[in-house]
Design a protein that fits this description.
A hairpin with a 3-residue loop joins strand 2 and strand 3. This protein has 259 residues and is mainly alpha-helical.
Amino acid sequence: MISERDYEAANRLYGELLKKGHIPMNNSLVLPYKEEEGVRIAIKKWARMWRTDIHEHEEHLHLVAEPEGCIFATSLSEMKNSRKYTRSFEDKIDFFIISTIICTFFSELESGYDVKLSIDNEGISFPQVEELVNNTLENWRKTDDERKGAFSAEFGLAVKEMSSKWQRTHFSRANKKITANQKTKMGYIMTAMSLLEKEGLVYISKQHKTSCIVFPKQQLYERMQSVLPDLDRYQVLKALIQESKHEKIKESNTKEETA
């Protein structure tokens, strides 16, 4: 039996999760959730009603929108019409590039313990992210050319469009501060990382106006752990990105052996 008090506690907690996306497990609003089964049942009913999911981790409680049917999920058209994002997306290719940057960043975090430890301690710089995206798009373009377009068709990727736009884009603007709306490679990366920063999942260190470093937060690892394994599309992209990385390493090793 769910009491009125349980519903009130669940409503307050859900409202806070809607505002912040995740809150610490030691937050006072989470205490009734941990102690009362009625509150847990009530908030999960709220979550199902609005096509969202509650994910509990040791340090944080997360609210995640379902990929389809959730009114809190942001579509491409909504992002284009939003004041927050309107200058960041000229067309769907911009959106695809930014999505590829985010997937590449996630893939790098999942590459292995040594890589994760390095990124946790030192962060990952924007130029490092740019090199990873360069390698991915170059490999995809090469594979797509060799397979006469079959690669992009098989995996539903706008390979030629993304690769062409990325190659035409300048690295950065000389002596200019990197912003999310610059039509430069650093600007694209800032847009992608800023989307994660707004969700409280990463910290962007702006040590110098033309150099930025991204540090993942614990909340990001928790979100990746609970959400990414069930996203089939991400798993496909991760495999393609990591395959591209391995191809680049093999290519570099071959050049060194023949030099």
